[in-house]
Task: inverse folding
């Protein structure tokens, strides 16, 4: 966590963008077939292990990661750093009512953070260029995207160069959590790799099939990798096709 925050603060000081990639078990499964998502993630300058399963897998494979750094924990750590340093942020994603509540929460918790712009996540593809240009024009130090995968990865992969924001971080459902619209799993569930189960309890009809499929495939992938390691993916040398 400390390394990631320091890298982001250096990016703000130098105005050289840092793109943060977030990896969990579901995403590790999805990149096997979703080439665009895979290439978008491979463009990241920092990759963090959002899921405890990814950390455990790294140890089983003999390439241990130092710790789990979730997207929401890094989001909060970067907001705390922005509060200390007086940085500016742009918020993109979630519903308009959630965004308004989030702005109120941030103003209370991080009073020195300057919110220079915000936009809900309900827009069409033909609006993306205008939104990216608007973000560039207000020159935020950090851009946070409260949108689901693979939408947030694809937006960042396509528009990062135009926006020229020093820190770009897709935080998924973190806007809803910080705004108080949804509850995050208790710490014990998080540290024991059961955050997915807590979410399943909250939304069983919507989530059971997804978690059953992705968790099973992740375990099978790990077993295969343990026996016959695959070559690592290479960072793309071209822009993802849109």
Result:
């Amino acid at each position: 966590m400390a390394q990631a925050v320091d890298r982001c603060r250096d990016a703000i000081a130098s105005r050289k963008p840092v793109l943060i990639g977030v990896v969990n078990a579901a995403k590790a499964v999805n990149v096997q077939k979703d080439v665009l998502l895979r290439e978008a993630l491979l463009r990241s300058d920092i990759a963090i292990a959002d899921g405890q399963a990814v950390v455990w897998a790294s140890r089983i494979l003999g390439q241990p990661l130092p710790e789990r750094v979730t997207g929401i924990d890094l989001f909060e750590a970067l907001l705390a750093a922005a509060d200390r340093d007086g940085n500016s942020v742009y918020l993109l994603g979630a519903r308009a009512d959630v965004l308004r509540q989030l702005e109120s929460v941030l103003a209370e918790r991080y009073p020195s953070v300057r919110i220079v712009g915000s936009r809900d996540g309900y827009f069409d593809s033909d609006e993306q260029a205008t939104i990216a240009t608007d973000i560039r024009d207000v020159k935020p130090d950090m851009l946070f995207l409260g949108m689901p995968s693979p939408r947030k990865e694809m937006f960042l992969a396509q528009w990062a160069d135009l926006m020229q924001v020093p820190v770009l971080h897709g935080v998924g459902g973190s806007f809803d959590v910080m705004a108080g619209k949804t509850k995050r799993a208790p710490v014990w569930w998080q540290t024991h790799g059961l955050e997915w189960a807590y979410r399943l309890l909250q939304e069983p009809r919507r989530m059971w099939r997804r978690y059953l499929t992705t968790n099973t495939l992740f375990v099978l992938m790990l077993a295969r990798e343990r026996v016959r390691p695959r070559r690592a993916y290479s960072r793309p040398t071209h822009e993802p096709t849109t």
Q: What stands out?
A: The longest strand covers residues 18-23.
